[in-house]
Each structure stands twice: as structure tokens, then as C-alpha cells.
Amino acid sequence: MYSFINSTRSLKQRLNLFVTSVKELYPDIIGIAVTRMDDHDNLYSVYRSADYGDNFPTFIESISQSPRLSKMRASLEPSIIDNMLCHQSSVKHIHLRLLQSNCISSMACPIYTNGTFIGVLFINAKVKDFFSEKVNYFTTFSILITLLITDDFNNKKAFHSIVKTVLLLSHHKDPETQNHLKRVAEYSRLIGLYLAKKRKCDGDFVDSVYHFSDMHDIGKSLIPEDILYSTDIYTAEQRAIMNQHPELGCQLLSNILTTFKYDNNQELDIILNIIRHHHERYDGKGYPSQLKGTDIPLEARIVTVADVIDALLSHRPYKQPWSIDDVELYLINGSGTLFDPLCIDAILHSLDKIALIQSRYPDIIEEELPV
């Protein structure tokens, strides 16, 4: 049973082994899901057993809106529903989904590290009073799951720290502001959330894109300063040099991470795809690989839209900010040629939130002082 502890396996492989062993002991279990909390108080699935079904969402927005989950976060104590059928008169939509999957009882256990709440373990069973009778066992079960999750969490945290150090070192030459990077991350998150609701991606993917979208231009640190800082229209030769920054960024990050042992290849792929392909066009006329349509990785398609939105809305030495109406028209006109139509639909459904992000992370325009 304890082969799941083997750290050479991925988190999903270890959880699969663990869950299989537990379900052999308790066949009434019909689904197990492990979720993590993002920086915006939302839960997203990092693991779902094969029998969990599609009725349970992969993303739960703002757990503060759930009394059950809010109480759990505050107390760090498990929450048990002995009989889902008793809740039908006032049942929430999510409970109806569980009932449709033959779930009769449910247990939610907090996942936390060093006293900090980081997620929830959900376990469902097809008989009533299942967890109350075995609360000690499943509390221990949740602790073991917590060890696996926190190990993965700490590994990711170390990886993120290295990545952000790379960003900090590279950004000192980039004329764009830190708040530009924050806004691009927030716009990327808006797009990702919309796509997750449309089941085009999951919450784990959205969180990765949110954390790594600000790395898209790290290759600019290797561009000569006379080109990087220029406010003139580029010559063909200068443009060719500037267009090398996606590949240069991938080389920079790959070289730095060569000696860092990190087994989450999915995250590595996401960050490298963002860096390499955020200047591709949906019609195949972008660079560096001239990828077309859905051949462009989804994470790159998302960041492309987010980056363009912020560039248009921001002040630059060579232009004034566009109005939100002009940006909206540009995005609509570019849908299907410059941009992924789904990503454009996503941002058009979130236009009211763009102004809030701009106000939260404003650029500070340095004015020339009189001599």
C-alpha cells in the first residue's frame, strides 16, 4: 500500500496508488478529489479519481461564499455530510450534482501546511453515515494525502522561486513596468477562468498560466539595449533581432534550470510554451514557428491576448493609451486572425473587470522635472 510514498513517481501516480488501495478496503467510496487554493481564494482540482465523474466542478470560485468551506478553513477541522438526501429541500447546486453521481455521504478535509490552509480533500461514498463511523481512519487518510500535497507544494514553491529570480534578474533591462507584468497575469487569469468554465482547461492549468504569464518576455534581457530602449520604428534588421527574444528566453530559462531537478514536466512545458509562442498568430503568420490555430499551445494563446490588451491600454513613449472601446473593437476585428476566438470571447465577457485590474496595478509615469 505504501509504494505511493516513492517520490520518483509523479503526484498523480502516487495518489492513484493510494486511492486504489483505500478503495480496495472500502468499496463504497465512489470518488476522491484533491484541490488547492489559488491566490484569489478559489479552489482548483489537482487530482480527481477516475470514478469522481463530471458532475463535480474542477474549479470552485471564492470559497468565502461557501459557509461549509469557510468554516473548515477557519477551524482546520473536517466537515461531514452524513446523508445528502436530507439536504434536498435547501440543497445547493453542487450537492445536486453529487446526488446525480450517486453520492449519499461526503467528507471534506482541510489540507494545510505549517498551519496555513492550502486546499481541500473531498471524499464521497454511496451509503449514508459512511464517514462518521470511520472518521478517525479518514482523518488519518487526509493527513497522508496532505503530506503528498505539501511535498508537491513545497517542490513547486522552490521552482517558482527560481523562476521569479530569473524574472527579477532579466527585468532590470526591460522598459515595461512590473505592474504591466501583474496586469498581464490578471488578464490571463480572467481568460483562463472563462475557458475552465467552458471545460477547455482545468483549474490547475489556470493557476499555472497565472503564475508564469509574467515570464513571457524574459528573452528581452538578451536584446541589445540600443534596440530594446529605442522609441523609433525598427529597421528590418532591428526587428529581426527583436523577434529573437522568444527563443532567447527559452534558452535562458532552460540553461538556468538545467541543474534543478523538477519532475512537473507539465509546468515546464507551460512556461516554455508561453515564452516561445506568445507572438504566434491564430492565422499562422506570427513567429517564431508560424503555428496556426489550435496548434498554438492554449497557454500561449491566452497570454498573447492578455499582453496585447495591456499594451494597447497602456501609455508608451510612442503612443497614448487606447480607450477600452477601441481595444474591444480591435480584439473583435482580430478574432480568428490575430487571436483565438475563444480567448476573445473570454475577455469580452470580462470587460468590466479590466478597469478594476488597471486601477489596482497602475503604471507610474515619470514626468521630466524642470531644471
UniProtKB/TrEMBL annotation:
<dbReference type="Pfam" id="PF13487">
    <property type="entry name" value="HD_5"/>
</dbReference>
<dbReference type="InterPro" id="IPR003607">
    <property type="entry name" value="HD/PDEase_dom"/>
</dbReference>
<feature type="domain" description="HD-GYP">
    <location>
        <begin position="155"/>
        <end position="363"/>
    </location>
</feature>
<keyword id="KW-0378">Hydrolase</keyword>
<dbReference type="InterPro" id="IPR052020">
    <property type="entry name" value="Cyclic_di-GMP/3'3'-cGAMP_PDE"/>
</dbReference>
<protein>
    <submittedName>
        <fullName>Cyclic di-GMP phosphodiesterase response regulator RpfG</fullName>
        <ecNumber>3.1.4.52</ecNumber>
    </submittedName>
</protein>
<dbReference type="InterPro" id="IPR037522">
    <property type="entry name" value="HD_GYP_dom"/>
</dbReference>
<dbReference type="GO" id="GO:0071111">
    <property type="term" value="F:cyclic-guanylate-specific phosphodiesterase activity"/>
</dbReference>
